[in-house]
Design brief:
This protein is globular. Strands 7-8-1-10-11-9 form a six-stranded mixed sheet. Strands 12-18-14-15 form a four-stranded antiparallel sheet, sandwiched between helices. The chain is 41% helix and 16% strand. It is built from 21 helices and 20 strands. Strand 16 (396-397) and strand 17 (400-405) form a beta hairpin. The structure holds thymidine-5'-triphosphate (TTP). Residues 10-15, 45-46, 112-113, 221-222 line the site of thymidine-5'-triphosphate. Residues 10-15, 45-46, 112-113, 221-222 line the site of thymidine-5'-triphosphate (TTP).
């Protein structure tokens, strides 16, 4: 199997750069971005490199930063209703992604300011037409394992790159090294394009998998990139502390060091796969065995939009939330932001979340969460569902919270695309070809309208297929409240793809799969009936079914001969339309069905 080429692009001190672009007077000066909280000058969340040179770090508060660096410019994150408004940073992140997308590679947006890229194909395409790559093409590249003794840093870097190029030319035995050279040139171009089009600098790591590209990205910052040839992995691991590796920074890393008595990644290679599996469970053991050898198979998932949307707020010290009213107030506030972002997300991506997660902590370092099914997407309902989840999990007596809450977060995730639903249904109504629709009659009731161009087969698979099959077979009866669609309620846990989880992480996860899901109820926004939140999705699908059925009847009934039973739609249509008439009728249906889905 050929090795992949994976890059991580990470913006430099991103929030600071965004603020400097808004206020160019700040360029070249020490800057830190501070949370709206006024206590001791607010909490710092981003520090630019000029301020870092003066000893300012992210863990300081604004006042402390001023002491270290009196000329520092502290910029406050904008806030709305006492809540940080980070939209300007998210929008800036999107601009960067748009530039990266011009380079035709799989892009996985990993956070507000970083993205993984799979460059394998793009590099292969380039290699054919690529002219010789020289050190001039790689003005900000460093290569792990190629270091010069020259005192002048820039001269040393350039000399090391030249040596790497000599050893990795197109005719060298290790084809992967030459592909890395081409990738490095491509990433230099990409970073230049990002700077030209957005004004932001970034750094990058280039290796053969995600873990290693992330690891080397941080080695030379800001505005530089680092390449890791496969043959240099043992060299890198020799001095690499275990906890520096992504996914080993937390509990698993601690346990690993403790149980195996190791500090550096190179020491992990001594343990057999069986030993690691026995000590850390099969899945973790295998992953550890592989990563000790520089192997990580996690794919770059082509994903440009976030998996979840959420916001949170801390209530440190005396500000901790102590009453049910306070909780309710802040849940409402957080829900306002989540819903505003959800609406925007819906406009851009036509998708809706299925999961609602409430997170809270009662002391620094602790974290709890509960997950529930999201019934609908307006602020009052989201806040209410979140409050139900939270109140079932914490102790409240006489409206007083037993242990005050110091951190509260709301997020939604497990998105499903509604465009697909609408399209699937639209496709269902669109006769695909003569053999499927048995055209042999003519309808005269509908006036001719312009033809809909889309040609689609009768939908047989996809999330709505079960419902559609049922709709064809059976008209929902008055008391039939639910359209049971297993596909609608099945959820794939994307987090399961993460290769490493400690026992306690897994327990947390289990805990997250809220037991309360089965009990919590909410009124249906369409019929007002009280329905379990877990069943809400199917229940709403039932309304979709009714709506569609009504539409189907309204537009088609005149042409359907009287049916012997009220419960069944004809298996075979005994009517036909002229091509134009058919398309026009369908167009009308498609339009009104789409408008149904677009209702907020
Ligand atoms: P990072 O990529 O962690 O850091 P950075 O971009 O500021 O600096 P570096 O050059 O070292 O990569 O975070 C990206 C942005 O996310 C950061 O500018 C501010 C924001 N952020 C928070 O809001 N809270 C946090 O706890 C962290 C770590 C970052």
């Amino acid at each position: 199997m050929r090795e992949r080429i994976v890059a991580l692009v990470d913006m430099d001190c991103f929030f600071c750069q965004v603020e400097q672009r808004i206020n160019p007077e700040l360029k070249g000066k020490p800057v830190a971005v501070v949370q709206y909280n006024k206590w001791r000058g607010g909490g710092i969340i981003a520090v630019n490199y000029e301020a870092r040179a003066c000893g300012v770090t992210r863990h300081m508060r604004g006042d402390e930063a001023k002491e270290k660096c009196p000329e520092i410019n502290l910029v406050h994150v904008p806030s709305i209703n006492d809540k940080a408004d980070t939209s300007r940073y998210r929008e800036a992140g999107k601009e960067v992604i748009n530039v990266i997308c011009q380079f035709n590679c799989a892009v996985q947006r990993a956070s507000v300011d970083e993205a993984f890229l799979d460059l394998t194909e793009a590099v292969d395409k380039r290699i054919g037409g690529e002219t010789q790559v020289s050190a001039d093409h790689l003005p900000s590249t460093h290569v792990v394992g190629f270091e010069s003794q020259l005192e002048n840093k820039e001269e040393g870097r350039s000399e090391a790159v030249q040596e790497w190029l000599r050893k990795s030319d197109a005719s060298s035995e290790d084809d992967h090294d030459y592909r890395l050279v081409v990738a490095a040139k491509m990433v230099e171009e990409m970073r230049r394009a990002i700077f030209t089009q957005t004004g932001f600098t970034c750094s990058a790591g280039i290796a053969h998998n995600k873990i290693l590209s992330k690891l080397v990205c941080g080695m030379h910052k800001p505005n530089q990139q680092t390449v890791l040839p496969i043959s240099k992995v043992p060299f890198l691991y020799e001095t690499l502390p275990v906890k520096k590796v992504r996914l080993l920074g937390g509990k698993l890393g601690d346990t690993l060091m403790e149980k195996l008595g190791i500090n550096y990644m190179s020491e992990l290679e001594k343990f057999s796969e069986a030993e690691l599996c026995q000590k850390f469970e099969q899945r973790n053991g295998q992953w550890l065995y592989n990563i000790a050898r520089g192997i990580d198979n996690e794919e770059v998932e082509a994903r440009l939009i976030p998996k979840s949307i959420g916001c949170c707020k801390r209530f440190p010290g005396k500000t901790a939330l102590k009453t049910k009213q306070e909780l309710d107030h802040w849940i409402q506030e957080l829900a306002v932001e989540v819903c505003a972002r959800l609406d925007k997300d819906y406009e851009e991506n036509c998708r809706r979340p299925r999961n609602l997660v409430v997170q809270w902590s009662v002391e620094v370092g602790s974290s709890n969460s509960k997950t529930g099914f999201l019934s609908h997407f307006d602020q009052p309902c989201l806040a209410r569902d979140a409050m139900i989840l939270l109140c079932k999990s914490i102790s409240i007596e006489n409206n007083k919270v037993k242990v005050p809450i110091q951190f509260l977060g709301l997020s939604v995730g497990k998105f499903t695309e509604e465009r697909n639903k609408a399209n699937s249904i639209a496709k269902f109504f669109k006769p695909s070809n003569a053999s499927e629709t048995k055209v042999n009659e003519t309808i005269v009731s509908d006036p001719p309208v312009p033809e809909v161009k889309q040609e689609a087969p009768l939908i047989k698979t996809g999330p709505m297929s079960f419902f559609l099959r049922n709709l064809k077979k059976k008209e929902p009866e008055k008391n039939d409240e639910r359209v049971a669609d297993p596909q609608m309620s099945v959820e794939t846990d994307e987090d399961e793809k993460e290769p490493v989880k400690s026992d306690s992480d897994k327990d947390d996860e289990k805990d997250k799969r809220c037991q309360d899901e089965e009990e919590a109820e909410a009124p249906c926004p369409q019929c007002g009936k009280s329905v379990k939140i877990l069943d809400m999705s199917e229940h709403l699908d039932h309304h979709v079914a009714q709506e569609l059925h009504k539409e189907l009847n309204q537009s088609v009934t005149p042409a359907i001969p009287p049916q012997p039973s009220t419960s069944a739609l004809p298996k075979k249509r005994k009517y036909t339309k002229s091509k134009n008439q058919s398309a026009g009728g369908d167009a009308k249906k498609i339009r009104s069905i789409q408008s149904f889905f677009n209702k907020k």
